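Re: export button greyed out
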Amino acid sequence: MTTTEWDASSLTRRFDEVRAHTEMLAAPLSPEDQTVQSMADVSPTKWHRAHVTWFFETFVLAENEHGFAPFQDKYWFLFNSYYEAVGPRFSRADRGVITRPGAHDVGVYRGNVDDRVRGLLAGLDSGTVEKLTPTIELGFHHEQQHQELLLMDIKHVLSMNPMRPVYAGAPDPHTDPDALGWVDVAGGLVEIGHDAGSFSFDNELPRHQTWLEPYRLADRLVTNAEWLEFMADGGYERSEFWLSDGWARVKAEGWQAPFYWEQLDGVWFEHTLHGTWPVNPGLPASHLSHYEADAYATWAGKRLPTEAEWEHGVVADGQAADDRVVGNLANTESFHPRAAQPGAGALRQVYGDCWEWTSSAYLAYPGFHPAEGAIGEYNGKFMSNQMVLRGGCALTPPGHARATYRNFFPAGSRWALSGVRLADGGAPSQPKASTA
Amino acid sequence: MTTTEWDASSLTRRFDEVRAHTEMLAAPLSPEDQTVQSMADVSPTKWHRAHVTWFFETFVLAENEHGFAPFQDKYWFLFNSYYEAVGPRFSRADRGVITRPGAHDVGVYRGNVDDRVRGLLAGLDSGTVEKLTPTIELGFHHEQQHQELLLMDIKHVLSMNPMRPVYAGAPDPHTDPDALGWVDVAGGLVEIGHDAGSFSFDNELPRHQTWLEPYRLADRLVTNAEWLEFMADGGYERSEFWLSDGWARVKAEGWQAPFYWEQLDGVWFEHTLHGTWPVNPGLPASHLSHYEADAYATWAGKRLPTEAEWEHGVVADGQAADDRVVGNLANTESFHPRAAQPGAGALRQVYGDCWEWTSSAYLAYPGFHPAEGAIGEYNGKFMSNQMVLRGGCALTPPGHARATYRNFFPAGSRWALSGVRLADGGAPSQPKASTA
Amino acid sequence: MTTTEWDASSLTRRFDEVRAHTEMLAAPLSPEDQTVQSMADVSPTKWHRAHVTWFFETFVLAENEHGFAPFQDKYWFLFNSYYEAVGPRFSRADRGVITRPGAHDVGVYRGNVDDRVRGLLAGLDSGTVEKLTPTIELGFHHEQQHQELLLMDIKHVLSMNPMRPVYAGAPDPHTDPDALGWVDVAGGLVEIGHDAGSFSFDNELPRHQTWLEPYRLADRLVTNAEWLEFMADGGYERSEFWLSDGWARVKAEGWQAPFYWEQLDGVWFEHTLHGTWPVNPGLPASHLSHYEADAYATWAGKRLPTEAEWEHGVVADGQAADDRVVGNLANTESFHPRAAQPGAGALRQVYGDCWEWTSSAYLAYPGFHPAEGAIGEYNGKFMSNQMVLRGGCALTPPGHARATYRNFFPAGSRWALSGVRLADGGAPSQPKASTA
Amino acid sequence: MTTTEWDASSLTRRFDEVRAHTEMLAAPLSPEDQTVQSMADVSPTKWHRAHVTWFFETFVLAENEHGFAPFQDKYWFLFNSYYEAVGPRFSRADRGVITRPGAHDVGVYRGNVDDRVRGLLAGLDSGTVEKLTPTIELGFHHEQQHQELLLMDIKHVLSMNPMRPVYAGAPDPHTDPDALGWVDVAGGLVEIGHDAGSFSFDNELPRHQTWLEPYRLADRLVTNAEWLEFMADGGYERSEFWLSDGWARVKAEGWQAPFYWEQLDGVWFEHTLHGTWPVNPGLPASHLSHYEADAYATWAGKRLPTEAEWEHGVVADGQAADDRVVGNLANTESFHPRAAQPGAGALRQVYGDCWEWTSSAYLAYPGFHPAEGAIGEYNGKFMSNQMVLRGGCALTPPGHARATYRNFFPAGSRWALSGVRLADGGAPSQPKASTA
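Workaround output, generated via the alternate export path:
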């Protein structure tokens, strides 16, 4: 990983901000809401709150606090997510059977670790701060990832409930789609990947050369209105648009529309964190699997961008040059992607609406080395059977997204807040049966 | 079903008692505890609290309250357990994903229905009381069944938690087993089944003749000490003791001891509602499947009683003659079976310790007719692939057990509070491979 | 078990007959037909042919042949069905992956064991013959059971093939149902079970008393025409007719008609060993689960008989008095149940058409003791989660059926040649929701 | 796809060669052997023989033969593998339940189609030959792919059999591993992919530029001796070497050694088509999943090559320059990888021993377009959740391998004849936890 430069007091200030943001997101949720795991991929809210705390306790306090003892021996076991090197851990699929510690007890745990981290930072010399910075900063970004997941997960939990509960807020007014434009990119022998000077995960490294043929990127995401056209044209009934694995899922799981859509008396509704509302045509189509994204692109006679095309295109468009660290600054009010604002000649909806599926498998960059120790399990061991998504989404916390960020999910995942930006031109086109 | 005679005020008084008992049992449980469903057989505490309320709302208020409207339309759907005739219902296995209504909201629902039932009863003439009595009294016994299930279910929920949470109370002191005696029963052409004059479920009817060869019943339940002998003699490793289906489960699920036992540093511990404690040798072995009960009996050179043998034996022993309605009067303090009290010549531990597996399949009595309407789904449709248990257990609420009561579970069930009483003599012996 | 009296030459003659019958049944089947296992319940034809041979090798030759050595060491492992006491065995569900020994090799194995058994019998004194008779006679009946299974199993194998292959023969001409009559039976304290003097399995023992209320039995099986009425009246769509487990299967597996029925252009066809033909209205409805049999009886306002009612009724009707050993004498020509012959006042279609589901669970008779040794695994260990069927069917070999015979299958089984005879009167009626 | 130039008579001669090779491979297999499907991935031998015939019937005869009628209507359905555009097809996982047509009938089908294809070719003018060439040549390569699969599949079928059957031949004598050397490659902006002038599949196209850092390739495959070292060092017990998905498989399926290895009395044996023999240390380790290949590389401090590195390295090494079409010329005698021949400075075991796992996901090349029509389903729709393998193996038929060939399997597949060649240097290293 790479890191930013920090002093102890700015580290502490940032620590407080990040920790407070998690609690703000959990605040609208009852103890019951915070307990449930609605499917294996989902974790309970209170588990997220505890796990990010465990991360600081394990990787910061355990090795640096004088006379360290865990807050609770068994939390060590309960709140380890997947770090084999840290020891045995509680089964992921059973996180939802743990009723104690409850939501309140997790708050007590958070308070305890917060105090101890603050105490640790207060007493350090600058050399030790420098040594600890990479892990603490990783803890910030780790907690932000879980902030995003917390929202995706509680969205799923609430979606299972026929009472149609609301997390917060109200939906956007009806909007019609703005026209789709294209941004041309020249390609050539370009560089992608992070180049240090600020924080990055290890999987964004090293910065390296890659060859791109000329291509173009759509200037906004595919809209709900366009998705309805795809559906009306038999999108979910015609195998010729689909990857074989995708078609098998369509049949096995009866996909007929995006994940959170439901037809009531002939009208399509969408479950959102703001409640269940009629599908809004101007908003980005969201909660799509890679298979759906790819099938849509094939139907549209276009393709998905590679991750290199996405990153180079965004940087070339000037959206990462002077502001490498961006995010959804407004996400304390709205928890759903919004309509593209009118505009032309530049990419829109890059970071704050939907994670964008690429056509790239999630694999190591040339020369990649995972970090040393248990932290090395953070990214590398998941480089198998997943696809890269780029950008960010309406649930991404402020200051968390950047152009080089590599998000990843299995191709069949739908509960993440994902969407589609089309590409066209020299690079790979549709990897499946011709529609001719 | 058969019923007792009631007037409106005694019905109301009993209604209040039964309803209050449920809330007393739920009181030690947090909102998180009340939300979780740890396996498909288990229901969340707050679901139990709501479902028994739905039962009164559906079967008492809906047809008799002037200007009836459901408290909440969707509760109709959420809290129906299995009544096809009442309409569609929420998937049983997904009860644990419902976070709203929460534990508090369920309390509000209970209060509302309580008030309306009391109001209804206050305004009725005696003819209408008589007409409603069977359904209301069924509602009492239905709620009592769920009181027992609530405790069995929360025991399972808490057992999944490595924090080893305690529901309430403290375990009994170490006791050694009392000697086992036998009670002889003559048999002949006897009568079993309920004979009216007080409440019974439809499956206890009609009272009818059956032929029994002479037999004898053990005067107490099999103890933990005896179960340890069975284990030490290879009970879980030797196929010759087991029914074929049972042996398949032993292998598939790795059974090595009763359901809630766990070996720590060479010592067997048992999870109870009072916490996790070393196995107490004088207490009844409990949380056993029918397969284990049957294998134990084969190992011991004995057999399980038929349900007719059990019922006739208990009645002949004088334990149902003058007190047809019995139960675990003390179960507000202890939630675990207790050691048999010294004594001789009569059956011990009949109603208040463990439900006792019989060798009888759960089938209709000769001449059985299910009740009319949706209530007819209460018992009859489950007469398939289940075995009968008789008696009662430490979790059975006061006034709920009786000699003719037919409980039933699939042969592989282990989360119910079940135990073993041996039989011997003229009737069926071991239905599997000889141990010779 | 009980046995008939035999001398060595009549034993040898019978041995030759039984062994030849198996080969005659396998003769129309190609090596490919004989190899396939189309579901876990089904065994390949060549496995049946080898397993019954293994039975004689293991239980007759191994203990009695001078200088015994197995024909092939690994056959010992491959062709053991379920005898734990004999040692490890090949996984049941994987019988269909064994291509060698092939059909021809199995013939060689059969010939070898045949010669050795004949040689053994030729050299025995009469005392040893008497000692071996029970096992050899069990071997006859065991092989006959597999003759029946071989046909049920190959019927299933061929049914999976869209080429619609024919095993043999041609279907019966179209017939209309004969009128249904009823036979009254007085009941009382009756005896059932086998009473020695000829062969029986251990599960038919001991003969014992049981009490029966007066009842009546339908004089023929339910017909296809009647089943079509049940279907037309929503039989597979109305939960009120069904046991809860049965209804769950209807929904999970999409049952809409008997197992081997298929609708083509609005006409119902049935797969038979004679090919696929339009459903013949006068023939017995067949290949039904216990759940379907029970649902039909409920729909018809009747019930299934208990096994005691069936046996006592058949004997009282004079159909087992002078001819205890009966069977489908003509089953070398026809492999499908046939229409009831006109007639009145007596039970029809008792042994040669369809195994008849009863309402009795398969459990031990009072005083039952399994046979000693590995043979004791034959029946007893399966007394769990199965229902009793009585009579015999069109695939039952000559001389194999009798009034006391207890066949058994899980309630959801449909590939066996099963049908429905209704009962009415004093004994148990519908064990599920009222249809009122 | 790209094609070679052919005239009608050379096409016919090649057709005869390819078709005869399939029958030669099937010749040692009995009808029983040819019928069985031992897991969903495996197809029966007679299905392979029929399917490749169906391919010629469907794609060559149906559109070009005057008065075409299918040989058998239902073969159209039975022998379609995965072409959605051709119509419904028989379930892949159930291929093993089809006993008719049998092995002999499939031979008749083959003969019929052979005659008709020869007849068609005999009557064509050269323009039509040119038009048909791409499809006919694809048919050759398609049949060759199935020749390889036929052998991989029957190897699996026979491996399930405790009789330890032999397909053919005898194993190689014991050999010790030859020393491992390395071949350096300069990298830079290189070209990969097929460049026309001879046959290729569509997925090898288009030829395109890609950037490679300098790297080196092992000059031979990893040996059994080396694999035993990996095992001895806890290779299958230490999570730090494994991708997360791989580790989950290790635990779920109990992997402890390569797929076909079995330990008997402390000695490792390997199931081969030549029988079961002690593991031969000098031979390539084979039948490994991508997960195992990757874990081994991590353990060894090396990595797998990307597919671009593999292809460019092999071509740079001079092994594809003058002989683009290569293969296992001797595979009519040996069906197992052989020891690397001593030698230095050049790559060994490139085409005829084991398919070599790369670190590249199977995705579209930049600018890829699938072929038009149903043939377009050949490759493109499988570009998801698979990894690329390069080279060829001991089961690859003569003339089938080439440097640009992209084979692909899911990362967990083990029944294919796969092995490991290590890479090192500038490109991606271990994508998982550090072993430090």
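DSSP finds nine helices and twelve strands in chain D. The button fix ships in the next patch.
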